[in-house]
Amino acid sequence: MPTFSAPDGTRLSYRVTGDGEPLVCLPGGPSDSRYLGDLGGLSAHRRLITLDLRGTGRSAVPEDPSSYRCDRLVGDVEALREHLGLSRIDLLAHSGGANLATQYAAGHPEKVAALALIGPGVRAVGIAVTGQTRRELALRRSDEPWFPAAFAALEAMAAGTGSDWEAVAPFFCGRWDAEAQQHHAAGRPVNGEAVALFAAEGAFDPEITRAALAAFEAPVLLVAGEFDLNSPPRTVTEFAELFPDATLVVQPGAGHYPWLDDAARFVATTTAFLDRRTAPAHDPMATTRAHCGGASGT
Q1: 231 in Cβ contact with 249 (< 8 Å)
Q2: N or C, which end of the chain has less CB nearby within 10 Å?
Q3: Residues 6 or more apart in contact with residue 159 via CB below 8 angstroms
């Protein structure tokens, strides 16, 4: 795997998959970026350049643990752009990685040609995901065989009497079959220190970030899974309203990993955006779409 040097000298690694125009991809977690795979076949349309964040995958553990903080990782993304020799990048991020991508876009708007946020985390912009929002979304899965145990664990977490994230894992997937369970297990973060310090005090300044995003000129795609308990559609809709030029897509039947739940739909949505195309109005996939301008509704 190719490597490059971060500003502090930490050796960082990245994967290259597919052909075509480059698309820089940031994982969530922070965890090994292998869980992104080829994003459901997106590599057939784009050359995916997938970064292992410091201390994860094949990237080195930094000497200074405080450099795991999200805002400090912005320099790693900029170093990757420079290493690749690109004047501007198309940038895709998943889950918690969206916090990093958002801060990068806010700090380096002229370096981003297009931004795609998939099941995005929202800490960087100070949006709260309420327990009620998650509960209402969870209740839509009440017919699933795993629901009773998962919902009981979710209620215990909301009440502050439980913390069994493994028990609520099915809520993060559009389907809880063997493939989803294997994917979930493979994507678990293994560097607890990196996870703990990613959102350490000072990592986010939502007011400054929001002000920067209000002037962000590049097009933005936000994809929410219909059943994603981590990044509920209601929350992602609120996020989309922060950008002047945002397209919101709620993928039917999907959870937190839309490329896993329906690869063809996800790839079609993402390539249409990256190719600056608008899907036809008679699209049989019946994806919910909304175009957000500034603070207007969706």
Answers
A1: no
A2: N
A3: none
Question: If pLDDT is split at 50, 70 and 90, which confidence band does 165 have?
Answer: confident
Q: Write the DSSP string, 191-229.
A: -HHHHHHHT-TTS--HHHHHHHHTT--S-EEEEEETT-S
Give the CA-trace dihedral at 210, 212, 218, 222, to 10 degrees. Answer: -20
Q: Which of 116, 114, 102 is nearest to 242 (CA)?
A: 102
pLDDT digits (tens, 9 = 90+) for 227-246: 999 999 999 999 999 999 99
Helix (H, G, I), strand (E, B) or coil at 289: strand
Question: Of 1, 4, 2, whose CA–CA distance to 75 is shortest?
Answer: 4
Separation CA 7–CA 279 (nearest Å):
40
Residue 279 in contact with residue 267, Cβ under 8 Å? no
178's tokens: 């063997």
In degrees, to the nearest 5, what angle opens at C-alpha 21 toward C-alphas 17 and 23? 60
